[in-house]
Amino acid sequence: MSLAISFDGFIEGPDGETDWLEFNEETADSLNKFIEGIDTVLYGRTSYEAWGTYQPAPGSADFEKMFYEKLHKMKKYVFSSTRSNFAGDPAVIQSGIKEAMEELKKQPGKDIWLYGGSSLITSFMNLDLVDEYQIAVAPVILGAGKPLFKDIDHRVQLKLVKTEHSASGTVLFVYQRG
Amino acid sequence: MRKLVLFMHVSLDGFAADADKGLGWISYDGELQQYADGIVATVGSPVYGRGTYELMAGYWPGVLNNPDASEHSKAHAQWVDKVTKIVFSRTMEKADWNNTIVINDNITEEINKLKQQPGKDLVIFGSPGLAHSLMELDLIDEYQLTLNPVLLGNGIPVYENIKNKTNLKLVKATTLKSGVVGLHYMKL
């Protein structure tokens, strides 16, 4: 899992906004490094519908274009119990998350990115399927929005592997299951 | 002007205590104690909600006269006994523990008066309920959090009732060997 949250734990503001996230050279650099380490991306239905085939606008920053170009070449899986066909033709998993993931983790290759959204993340956490958490905490209090951690049904002890802070005040935490 | 600082141990998923109000998940060790001592050194007056205050008042005076208490505990007990303590409670009329100011009402006005007095900072210890009220009133100037490497799933949340988006500045992040990260932020 890898994503950014506000200081008070939200992945989106109350109107779905993510404009409080800062993008700069440092962020671009760490995103590029991250994407080199993965070859598979997992989406929930809503996230895939919103971002699965997203193309940055022509005037976007180069790093953003490169990021999505690489991302869209990866193997994609969508978890949905209600829909079996999606634009871009990703593999669809309609049931048996745990079995599917155990199978997927056994295959050779790079790491797997649990893209989101939050309800897929909750399902994965409750099934103990997340091996590593990379969380970038932005220096802003939103007060309301969509929380990252919600409905987790058991305590999980973690091991801190790394912290990094950027000039903008964002702190990246990397944890593994303890 | 002195600042109002929230000092709290928090879980990665944003809880200040578990569902049973327990704190057993905090990775407490010598290094965290030393880190906390550094924060205590900045305190002019500790600020408590009624619940936390009663816990403190029921504990520290006993340490003063306990021959088996560690030197560190005794030193802290002496400090907290002498220092002017501030407790917020709508219902408490009078505090039994010495050097305590009880504030029942007009939180914003009282906090602003206290901030204008000379001295070191006003630091909220624990007291999540009080912290929510102070966040709602937008009175907290700095956050001193120790982020523990654990997901609790439920409990008493750190953040609640916040109305406004607020930009912060990271002052310092300190990684301890236990995996706890001390985070110091100030309001911009």
Please trace the helix and strand order of chain B, writing H or E for each element: EEHEHHEEHEHEEEEE
Mean pLDDT of chain A: 93
Q: Largest beta sheet of chain B: what is the strand line-up?
A: 5-4-3-6-1-7-11-10
Helix coverage percent of chain B: 25-40%
Shape verdict of chain A: globular
The amount of beta strand of chain A, in percent, is 25-35%
Mean pLDDT of chain B: 96
Q: From N to C, what is the helix and strand string of chain A?
A: EEHEHHEEHEHEEEEE
Strand content of chain B: 25-35%
Distance between the termini of chain B: 15 Å
Please tell me how large the radius of gyration of chain A is. 16 Å
Spatial strand sequence of the major β-sheet of chain A: 1-7-11-10
User: Which runs of chain B of at least 5 residues are low in confidence (pLDDT < 50)?
Assistant: none
Beta strand count of chain B: 11
Characteristic key phrases:
heterodimer, A: 178 residues, alpha/beta, four-stranded mixed beta sheet, four-stranded parallel beta sheet, 27% helix, B: two-stranded antiparallel sheet, 11 strands
